[in-house]
Amino acid sequence: MAYTKIHKMGEYAVCSHDTTDNLYVYTYDKEQQKSFYRTLGTTDLEGAIAAVRSLVERGITGDPKDALVQRPLRTVTEVLEFNRPKAEAQASAEFNGIAIERMKRLMGGSMLQHMVPSTFESFRDAAMAEGIVLSTVDRTLTVFRKACAVAVGERRLPRHHVPEVPYFCTKNDLRAARPKGRVMEIEEIAAVIDEAQFIHFLICLVWLANLGCRIGALLDAIAAQIDYRRGLVDLNPASRVQTSKWRPTLAIPETLAPWTVGLLPGHLVQWRGQPVGEIDTAFEAACRRAKLAPGGNTYSIRHALGRYMRSKAVEDEQIALWLGHIQPPQSNETTLIYSPFSPLYLREAKLTAESFVREIARHCRRHDPLQPPWMKA
User: Fold this and answer.
1) 5: burial class by Cβ within 10 Å (0-12, 13-18, 19+)?
2) pTM of the full predicted structure?
3) What is the pLDDT of residues 103-133, one digit of tens each?
4) Residue 12 gets which letter from DSSP?
């Protein structure tokens, strides 16, 4: 019984065998001083050569047994699904999951090594036609870039098969971008609060008005993140790694304090004992019932509070810290860990947030943002 070399590539060779039609890959391991012959599971020479070429392109060395079992990734969908477990274990898991599904739907069948700039331009145009803004398109493609990098590192994708992914959103685009939700007037926010039909939605609106936090941070938050002794709320769960979208620790405004009493264990915003996944549908419905102009969403409250703070001459740094645009400063006097425990930390921002909520309350007719209904009862 003898093997015959047919085609050599790098340290590997495609071989035939005199007792079977199957083709094999051969290599010699100098360290082990041992020859390896592994079946390629095919009698097609072209397919066998392609399989061995994949080993070389992926940087596989030595015994190719395990690498032959791992099929190389060829399409957008394959590389995204390969990296999905890691993407959904990150702090931005929710966005990553949405981004993966969007890319699979709009360009999932594209062969990686055949992708050209126009492929991504078509994806951009299709995503924006669905209402996705340019900055979100770029962020979505970043999920794809990371997936490709992981696949290369795991030797499931040849480096030269990774397409060059363009950046569409320039700094000028970011500066010119409109807020994610239009800035609502205080009277409009009061109208939305009055149209709240469920207690979990009312709780959500009051917390947003006081803290101006991102909706994701609020929906993730649980009662255990409230430090009642020190009057603080940490918007970043203990198990979550901070990202560029900083989730700060804030002093609880006096206008929010009553809403931290008598909470159910678990998530701050919950429905029938379960966490709430999104609040946009309820917000849009409340806006319609209040006959408000379109374009309002949960970000509108965040923008309104930021604008209100600016109108009251709160320092830019305090606004940025309160809204989580930047992290607390680190210095010998004020450190990242201890700064929220200072009685003067973001004092002007806190007082202004309280004033903001009191002004909203003056325009409410049905619900009182200063007193939760369970305390009235």
Assistant:
1) exposed
2) 0.59
3) 999 999 999 989 999 999 999 999 999 888 8
4) E
